[in-house]
């Protein structure tokens, strides 16, 4: 079976919904960032300390590896859309859902100090959203507005998966 891929901004709900989808469908869940750290033997922060390119190279290797597997629910890192090769690999064996959550909602409840790219404060959320929104939309097979309750959004996603 094809993978279910979740993309979106940091704080958009990729991990939360990914775990819930995997549980409901009886599929394994993979957080791509956790997988990356295990596979690379380094933390994301240590890779970013070298450069964003060092991290993106590791992310691209991780995505290539994950895209060769089947029947997974994968929550990607927020910037996975910055590398076309990563999106191409994900599309080979997966359906990409973009969880579109308003930047103001993310900025109001995400602990930015725990996110490497958001450490500069809430304005960074708005800046990244503007920088990435077109890339997310172009990469997505399906766009899901993350508005409403968690259960409502989950049911929308599951209904679409059922129809695939």
How would you describe this structure to a colleague?
This protein is of the alpha/beta class. The chain contains 8 helices and 5 strands. It has helices at 14-25, 32-40, 44-50, 52-67, 84-92, 103-109, 123-139, 150-163; strands spanning 3-7, 29-31, 73-75, 94-100, 142-145. α2 (32-40) packs across α4 (52-67). The radius of gyration is 15 Å and the shape is globular.
Keywords:
single chain, 5 strands, alpha/beta, 164 residues, 8 helices
Strand content: 5-15%
Mean residue pLDDT: 92
Task: Profile the largest sheet.
Answer: 5 strands, parallel
Distance between the termini: 11 Å
Number of strands: 5
Q: Could you estimate the helical fraction of the residues in percent?
A: 55-70%
User: What is the H/E order?
Assistant: EHEHHHEHEHHEH
What integer value in Å does the Rg equal? 15 Å
Which descriptor suits the 3D outline? globular
Pick out the low-confidence regions.
none
Question: Which structural class fits the helix and strand makeup?
Answer: alpha/beta
Strands ordered across the widest β-sheet: 2-3-1-4-5
Q: How many distinct helices?
A: 8
